[in-house]
């Protein structure tokens, strides 16, 4: 009877796209009930050419680098999107706002919709996934109501892309709407999309009209990022800052409700070449596929594999692998390995904070390198690294949430293993680690949208025995990275609203040095780098400095950590911190609290008698 049921789940050519989605949901339901029906968890149901095929479940931690899985309603183009790495010869300066930038009025009328991708509205909550997303045609997203020779061609239906709609309101003037995080109505900040059919000498204006943060680094001189495929091919130039007449402002609205206020970002831009293929982005993209490529390089290097092990921690909601890396020198005995202290480092719980992944790559480059310092770290510690906590959000181009429609960094205390597998398994891994050995430090890498520089959030212990200990590591970081890391921007308050974050949950597990490392989307205001943007090289360097500081912090010779000058400087900052307890300047994700969206909708479905 089970095989008969499976056969009814084959494709029907007469079905509409909506029927195909319903079919996918039925397949998912059968797969979920399979283990109960057959009383085994080792047999999985797959579909090949529409026919049911039974396969054995692979080992849970087996490493694989399969193509990303998308929600079935997502339209995904087949183009392979790749960018070269490049460092500008000189630091790129902030834009200097004149505060006199005038808004160019749009032409009368609603404008012409030249791009619209509405897949995000097809489902209220996540149901199931497949490699490549929807089977439907991807041509339906384009509308050209004006002559194509003067109209830009927009596209964002690729990995980490985000643009929902583009409206041409003038010959070279476009109003853009970003897609909210899937299955939510919030969190518009991250953008990343492709443009074609441009004219090099013309001045284009772009205005993103549905941003939700009241303040932005764009008001402090941050500029968007531009990538030209022709510039990359002919001159080796990659992502660089571009744009003039940048302004961030509140939209006009008759609604006085602060929670519903929207903001706009507008800027003008000249493209370097005619008929080029270009990309615009909020920050340097770092996709799930790039991480997989990086991990493939690690696993294929025999020398690195001798002290580095890559495994699958768990599967995400969509079925994408969440990888965990264990890095340590092989001891002469098991007891020697067990006696090592541990360090836990994670990143990309918020998918739009790509700067966290660049810092993570720098951290791994150092730790896996052949330097004497890297060897010392591997000899003395066991590193547990989860480089991408939210692969689903990264794949679909979310800014903050997972496919549960919730902020994972508010759900580390969750009991809902199946709804929040990534953070549940991470917390479980750390709990087991704490029971086995001393975890000297936990750090989660993030991006920050309202403050410049790099800084840390920690947890004030209020303990006489360990008073101010949590401030030592950040202060040492500021000494190692003087022109990038701001100790004055660090905060250590434990807020009730942040109890579900990784930083506080790990601290309550007993890890005294529990932090988030926050890297700006903008740049530095310090020393010789004052007024310049961060590059990918700058972000990677923070991973190097993190390792360097860890060496100093845990050096058996505690001269650096306990020298009188450092202690005096630490004390001199305390008065400042006591005046900073009103806010950590962190993000408010209270609108993403609660049960996963799919469970909420299941509760609302009335029972059929």
From TrEMBL:
GO molecular function term, any single one: metallocarboxypeptidase activity
Source species of the chain: Xiphophorus couchianus
Cofactors demanded by this protein: Zn(2+)
Official protein name in the record: Cytosolic carboxypeptidase 2
Family: Belongs to the peptidase M14 family.
A GO cellular component annotation in the UniProt record: cytosol
Subcellular location: Cytoplasm, Cytoskeleton, Cilium basal body; Cytoplasm, Cytoskeleton, Microtubule organizing center, Centrosome, Centriole; Cytoplasm, Cytosol
Catalytic residue list: 518 (proton donor/acceptor)
Cited CDD domains: M14_AGBL2-3_like
Alphabetical UniProt keywords: Carboxypeptidase, Cell projection, Cytoplasm, Cytoskeleton, Hydrolase, Metal-binding, Metalloprotease, Protease, Zinc
All copies of domain Peptidase M14, residue ranges: 284-554
Region (Disordered): 1-22
GO biological process: proteolysis
Catalysis performed (reactions): (L-glutamyl)(n+1)-gamma-L-glutamyl-L-glutamyl-[protein] + H2O = (L-glutamyl)(n)-gamma-L-glutamyl-L-glutamyl-[protein] + L-glutamate
